[in-house]
Amino acid sequence: MTDTVDKAPAPAVPPEQIKAIPVRHYGRWVAGAVVIAVLALIGIAFSNANINYGVIPDYLTDGTILSGAWHTLYISVLAMLLGLVLGVILAVMRMSSNPVTSTVAWFYVWFFRGTPVLVQLLIWYNIALVFPILNLGFYKDEMNQVMTPFLAALLGLGLNEAAYMSEIVRAGIQSVDEGQTEASHALGMTRAKTLRRVILPQAMRVIVPPTGNEYINMLKTSSLAYVVQFSELIKRSTDISSTSLAVVEMYFVASIWYLALTSVFSVGQYYLERRYARGSTRSLPPTPLQRLKKNLRMFNSFGRPEVTR
Amino acid sequence: MSSLGKDVASPTSGHPMVKAEGVHKSFGLAHILKGIDLEVNPREVFCLIGPSGSGKSTFLRCINHLEKISAGRLYVDGQLVGYRQKGDKLYELKESEVAAQRRDIGMVFQRFNLFPHMTALENVMEAPIQVKRETRAVARERAQRLLDRVGLGDRTGHYPAQLSGGQQQRVAIARALAMQPKLMLFDEPTSALDPELVGEVLDVMRDLAADGMTMIVVTHEMGFAREVGDSLVFMDDGVAVETGHPRDVLTNPQHERTKSFLSKVL
Q1: I need a surface site. Which of A36, A231, B180, B261 has the fewest CB within 10 A?
Q2: Cα distance from B254 to chain A (closest Cα, Å)?
Q3: Is B130 in contact with A191 (Cβ distance < 8 A)?
Q4: What are the pLDDT digits (tens) for A91-101?
Q5: What value of ipTM does the predicted structure carry?
Q6: Is B115 in the A-facing interface, judged by CB distances under 8 Å?
Q7: Is A36's Cβ below 8 Å from some Cβ in B?
Q8: C-alpha distances in angstroms, A195 versus A92, B128, B152?
Q9: What's this model's pTM, rounded to 2 decimal places?
Q10: Is A19 exposed, middle or buried (0-12, 13-18, 19+ CB in 10 A)?
Q11: What burial letters (b/e) apply to A21-41, b meaning 16+ CB within 10 Å?
Q12: Neighbours of A77 (CB within 10 A)
């Protein structure tokens, strides 16, 4: 069998393409002027404030701040990974037909989503009040020795994140058409195999965007770990400001680092989303670079040359 | 299109491929199947026709245990579907045992249900690798051969979204055949297709029937049923109203209900 279709022969000479003068977009220029004016006003206000901007570039690359940024980065990555793995497990438990596991998952989400992260961090840090001795059978130690600022931050942030991630993963799994499950079952695949090979890869398209959002949130929420003495950006910034008296300046330094980290991650997220869009559209959306080029071409149309459509 | 022969497993012989005894199915209060008795012999093309809601799709889905029957007995190749009988007690099969039963039964869906994140070739390779533990090389070789035979040898790298409905359904048939089933179930395989694409799918099915595959086909294509079918059942309201050779039932229906249905669709 072949898939050739008899088509009428195309005309030998292509018709003359339309060349037209594009419509003028006055609104864009008015809006642009308003935005520039507002930005200028805000900029003037900030530059007249009693803030010593001169010290910011120096502290930006200060060793203490750099290590704080590194701590922020790795605690948020590790907590996110913990949240992701636990979140998938919780989502599967929640949708399980086993009434015990689904109830456990429901209570987990209810509790960890319903109490402030700040409180959860402090509880982990002070867990020795409840369990003075940690005894795992093969390992025994005083809880105060075990529960370092790092571990308290990891558990506090990660277990809280798991509650949110499980809801995102569950929504993703439920977004996949039921026919996919039926088709895999009809082929003799078990439920576990169906989930891993067919459902989760398709759910990723729904899971990835909000997860990127969650991670950006995590980068900033990790600042709360300063209450458990974990030396991330905010703790390091306040340490410096308590001796240098450059309080607001140090918050600016920290914010610049947060902005830099979230910006780098946003780019990575974009390409991750493109990867999981495979097969869902006929052609992938343009990359930011391609879009920039297109917009620049449009910008040039101010001179209104004739444009071939 | 060349022969599909190698992909048709020979039945274990002796008993009918599918045997239904008083099969009932209810969803809550809705009584969908009200006692279906029928037999499908090996190498037979068995067509199920009837109005929507008559239970023909539900019955098809009971055969590979996508739906659990509420009463009666259903056998495939002499084996009870979904249960094991010991004495006069029935024991539910474990998930892995149900999956093992389904391996030998191919199914083609109305909405294709191809895996959208895999190419045509990967769709066909998936189950043999994951379920039968075949090597990639063996699975790839057979997948390529099956896609060649449904006329899509040059579309192996395409994702389902890049294929027409008819092409997707042919990939779906190849995907089911890759498990070398002894029985194929078709659930209205051409109902979601543009009229001009129906023919290419029916051609593949006709070829499969000629190679001796046992097929149960829920369809509204009366021409196909008459030409290819060996038996035909007209179902209405959960009951098999009339059974016989397609030519007889379609041209000379005995029951009033069959007559009025056929007068509307023929």
Answers
A1: A36
A2: 36
A3: no
A4: 999 999 899 99
A5: 0.92
A6: yes
A7: no
A8: 9, 17, 28
A9: 0.80
A10: exposed
A11: eeeeeeeeeeeeeeeeeeeee
A12: 15
